[in-house]
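Appendix B. Chain record.
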Amino acid sequence: MKILLLEDDFTLSKEIAVFFNSKSFECFPFYDGSSLLKKFVPNTYDLIILDINVPGKNGIDVCKSIRKMDRKTPIIMLTAFGEIEDKLISFENGADDYLVKPFHFEELFARASSLLRRKEIPQQIQEKIIIQDLEILENEMKVFRSGKEIKLTPKEFKLIIILANANGSVVSKQFIAEKLWDYHIETNQNTIEVYINFLRKKIDKEHSMKLIHTKIGYGYYLKDIE
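Structure tokens predicted for this chain:
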């Protein structure tokens, strides 16, 4: 499997590459964001690891640019900062996971393995999900409301699929966390709430009929309520 790595610390970059090579991965390192984007070829890699604070274009901008070309390859962000705002910005721009430095290589490997398993698991895909004037084309990863396409990040798309597949039933934060992330729910409670707000702004804000609802103390559901 091929890993694209953006990390400007030469020593750390080499250590990560050696570690993943020992796990039978092939690692392709870059040291600044601009150089990476010039040579990036969509759908070439199995996993992308991006440090946020790098020369040229930073990791967030690189992530955003990659997502315009490649919506499916998993992306893990690395940073020396652990603020929730940094995590949310990463997720909003298309990242699938986030790891704060310093970290153990085994933890990075566990996160990577989790994302790769999700990528490889065959999904039973419905061609189209329709809820009121909301239309979800799951195989094309597209969402429309009243005929207008709504641009969602990969994580937002996964979240709306989770809600849509519940057929109007309430989905708990625990269930959402287990589907979107493999690690412990306590690290994701606030993030899930923010993601729901992201979806509401994109799906419901311009419409009088709201489709995304909260059942306080239980979770969220997607349903047209007259």
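Further analysis of this model is presented in Appendix C.
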